[in-house]
Amino acid sequence: MEKLERLIGAAQRLNDASRRVTDAEFLGRFKSLNLPRELQKDMRGKPSPDVPREGMREQYSEALREVLTVLGGISLTPIFLGTIGGRLIVDWTAAGLKGSAAGSFFNLIELWRLNLVGDLKRCVHCNGWFFAAPSWQRFDSKKCQQAAFEARPGRKEQRAAWARQHYHAHVKGEK
What we know:
There is one protein chain. The protein is of the alpha+beta class. It has a domain at about 1-120. The chain is built from six helices and four strands; from the N terminus they run αααββαββαα. A hairpin with a 2-residue loop joins strand 1 and strand 2. It is elongated, with a radius of gyration of 25 Å. The mean pLDDT is about 75.
């Protein structure tokens, strides 16, 4: 699983950097387009992450090196399954990955091919993988969100104080 986590991280960095990879020449061409300022900002008025920045070429190269390093340690072996209507049906196994990691590897490659790898995130509470529908999503479920809320420092005392106040105000009829 360590290889998959490294691959996901590197793939996300590569995906992000590839959108913005640039050098001085490209930056010059981008600026020469004279795009309206509105198109150079996101919906919140901040500079768009897609606007090229200096140094993105190095980030792209570094992420690409890591992706190639991880992929270099995985060798694919075809498994012939048969033919259907004259079409060859082949599955693949990944030597270098054990157990469910091999299946996860192929799923990750497919997500990357569909340009969805950037939406993968880790849940802050349970550390499980999920698709972040809005980019700022931090939890994979309401259950994890609630558990993280309840696990905050001081939450137990806060709840006890609320329960005492609620008891005295509503159950005993005192104010």
